[in-house]
Write a structure and sequence with these properties.
The chain is α+β, with helices and mostly antiparallel strands and about 700 residues long. The protein has four domains: about 20-365, TIM Barrel; about 370-520, beta-galactosidase, domain 2; about 525-590, no CATH class; about 595-705, Galactose-binding domain-like (Jelly Rolls, Sandwich), CATH 2.60.120.260. Helices cover about 15% and strands about 35% of the residues. The chain has nine helices and 46 strands. A hairpin with a 2-residue loop joins strand 2 and strand 3. About 50% of the residues are buried.
């Protein structure tokens, strides 16, 4: 029987039941086809249910009438790969996408026509129809109704906010595009439109956004605190697209549609003039606040970074030369995303996995828990002193959310705080806690744990592990303070990863045993739920990825992990070394492979320095090798055998490139461009200036990536 998808006014549905999906954006045309599958498996391991991607018009029809769906632009193969990996696909067909692409994705030839793009001119719709038709040819037979992965279509992007028409003319434009798509054959359960900043939706399902900063903002100073760290029923982010003009509100009826995000910033793509660095905590705190504000879909843009393809006629990045207000790197679209430009799984991915693991387990219940925001909660982000709280519950059980994090602004710490939840029939009072600056978390109350009731606890639920007995996994760095009511004939076995945490278990073990596993927050970030003959909880510095080739450990050191419960047999190639409490520890011996890097200055001038980088491999039989470059300057470019292959805008962070993509080159040329102390650039961390200029490579290191299959 085919799965049914839909939505109510409160949440998405799957087979007519509440569904809380996690969605992540990756642009297939910005990532090498040969690595799509491994990246999609990484996304799935991070908790992604639905992959979203633009079809970027200029990538497919740069020259009018010459369609290119080959290589990295092979949309059909990408959709098929999503299906192979067990992922749903939300296809964003534009025609305008923005996506930091030249002309917002429009080909140059389109802008030379005798009609206005994004207008209601029939000649424009005729051209769009041709483009939509070509996209449909690529995905025909891969829609959900045909057993394919494509469950949804997004029409246009930010229409009426970033260009296009507003009011009834804009609504008609969106309706026309929708009817056009349906007429061509795009028959899917879900049709969406972006809904922030006064954008019109044509009656389609509106999806919202939110970013922790605004690299498109034209100011060169720290900007005001972001409203995305405040619990609020306000769905609009007035800072998205502020280079076009600040948003003016919502055009759809909030009472008719659920609160969903499709562009919650998984990072930030820096511009030349503004280069904020999005941290894992920036994204984690913002995600938690959205959850506490009632969001019932977390959709990240971007979840996976990429690299712009090279154009046949021009470069394909957004730039001021094309009439936009921002200059972007010509090639890099890293976005500082959870999965980076070269497939690196970042700390951000591990941070937001804390939420995705929870939502996989408890998301359907959360869908039926509306957000209640108390009067004591501050509604302006400039209030850095009052405690920010929210509650989601169904009248009986739920969660209290606390955020004391504001990006780049210190928050007042609070000692001996007592959190309370007022329900109709009782008041839940939590033990006293201290809330430090930069803290953000949520706690459960009246949570059913099998044959026990967790009245409250000062830890956060992560997941369950269904093995011989069900284990309920929580995490936190405070004393957990479990308040549990145990039903007759049951007992609780407490498993703590932190010394000094104690809780007596019920002595009656005649009934069902309930295991409660408590992790530190750091262990929880490194936790991965894995299905073997039963479910297991792996904790490893390596990423643990389920693939069609088996369970893979991917990391910068040889695989080592601890697991609960203990594996039935020691995996081939691993050694069981010790126990950490109830966790068994296994490790794999390191091989002797190494990579050495040296560099020398070739030439210097007033504007740049040129270096040669030599890379010596003991063996090129590597999963990958990452080159980490520490440089000071405005920007840098890398060439291989005379070909321009990578670029970067300086942010104060090391620049990392993956060498697998380039077949492990032996020699690279690096150009570092000068940054002057009076440059019109916003940087959170400026380089060291020498006579008013920074232009120098200071260090290069190579790190091998290990991929180990669990035998």
């Amino acid at each position: 029987m085919m799965t049914e998808f839909g939505y109510t006014k409160d949440y998405m549905t799957k087979d007519n039941k509440p569904w809380f999906p996690i969605m992540g954006e990756i642009h297939y045309s910005r990532y090498p086809k040969e690595f799509w599958k491994e990246s999609l498996y990484k996304m799935k391991a991070g908790g992604i249910d639905v992959v979203s991607s633009y079809t970027i018009w200029i990538h497919h029809e740069e020259i009018e009438g010459e369609y290119d769906f080959t290589g990295n632009k092979d949309l059909r193969s990408f959709a098929e790969t999503c299906k192979e990996c067990g992922l749903y696909f939300m296809l964003r067909i534009g025609p305008w996408s923005h996506a930091e692409v030249r002309n917002g994705g429009f080909p140059d030839w389109l802008l030379k026509k005798d009609f206005e793009p994004r207008s209601n001119d029939p000649k424009y719709f005729d051209v769009v129809k041709k483009y939509y038709t070509e996209i449909f040819k690529q995905v025909e037979g891969l829609l959900h109704k045909d057993g394919g992965p494509i469950i949804g279509i997004q029409i246009e992007n930010e229409y009426g906010h970033c260009g296009g028409l507003d009011g009834e003319d804009g609504e008609q434009h969106m309706r026309t595009l929708y009817e056009l798509a349906k007429e061509i054959g795009f028959d899917v359960p879900i049709y969406t439109a972006t809904g922030w900043g006064g954008a019109v939706t044509g009656g389609l399902l509106p999806v919202m956004g939110g970013y922790c900063e605004a690299p498109w903002d034209q100011r060169l100073t720290d900007i005001e605190p972001s409203g995305n760290y405040i619990f609020t029923h306000e769905r609009n982010d007035h800072n998205i697209g502020s280079d076009y003009g600040f948003g003016t509100g919502i055009t759809f009826d909030l009472e008719k549609f659920p609160y969903l995000t499709a562009e919650l910033g998984g990072g930030l793509q820096v511009t030349h003039h503004r280069r904020p660095v999005a941290t894992a905590e920036d994204i984690g705190a913002m995600s938690l606040v959205k959850l506490g504000s009632g969001v019932n879909l977390l959709g990240y843009y971007m979840y996976h970074g990429g690299t712009n393809p090279k154009g046949k006629l021009t470069t394909l990045q957004e730039s001021r030369a094309t009439g936009y207000l921002n200059d972007l790197p010509e090639l890099s679209y890293d976005f500082r995303a959870p999965i980076r430009e070269y497939g690196q799984i970042s700390e951000t991915a591990k941070e937001i996995k804390l939420l995705s693991m929870f939502l996989k387990e408890y998301g359907s219940e959360l869908c039926n828990m509306p957000a209640y925001i108390p009067q004591s909660n501050p509604l302006v982000p400039t209030n850095l002193s009052d405690i920010r709280t929210s509650y989601r519950h169904n009248g009986n059980s739920g969660y209290v959310f606390v955020n004391n994090y504001q990006r780049r602004y210190p928050m007042e710490a609070h000692e001996e705080v007592t959190l309370e939840v007022e329900l109709s029939n009782e008041t839940i009072t939590f033990p006293e806690i201290n809330i430090e600056d930069k803290a953000y978390f949520f706690y459960p109350f009246n949570m059913q744990l099998g044959s026990a009731l967790l009245k409250s606890a000062t830890v956060t639920p992560l997941c369950t592990i269904k093995n011989l007995e069900t284990a309920y996994v929580f995490y936190g760095d405070e004393d957990p303070n479990y308040d549990i009511e145990i039903f007759a004939g049951s007992s609780v076995n407490f498993i703590f990863a932190e010394e000094g945490w104690e809780k007596s278990a019920n002595e009656d073990f005649s009934g069902k045993v309930i295991n409660i596993v408590t992790l530190s927050r750091e262990d929880a970030k490194n936790a991965w739920k894995v299905n073997l003959e039963n479910e297991y909880l792996f904790i490893s510095d390596s990423s643990v990825i389920e693939t069609d080739k088996g369970i893979q450990f991917i990391g910068r050191t040889p695989a080592k992990f601890k697991v609960f419960p203990e594996l039935l047999t020691t995996p081939k190639g691993f050694t069981r070394v010790e126990n950490e409490g109830d966790f068994a520890v296994y490790k794999k011996e390191a091989d002797n492979n190494s990579v050495d890097v040296t560099y020398q200055l070739l030439e210097t001038s007033e504007d740049k320095q040129v270096y040669e980088i030599d890379i010596k491999y003991q063996s090129k039989e590597l999963a990958d090798c990452f080159l980490s470059l520490s440089y000071e300057g405005d920007s840098a470019k890398i060439y291989h055998a005379g070909e321009f292959i990578a670029d970067n805008f300086y942010t104060g962070e090391n620049w990392e490139i993956g060498l697998k993509r380039f077949n492990f080159p032996d020699k690279l040329t690096l150009e570092v461009y000068a940054l002057h102390e009076k440059a019109e650039v916003f940087l959170e961390k400026w380089p060291t200036m020498k006579n008013g200029v920074a232009c120098e490579l200071t260090d290069v290191k190579a790190e091998i990536e290990y991929v180990t299959v669990l035998g």
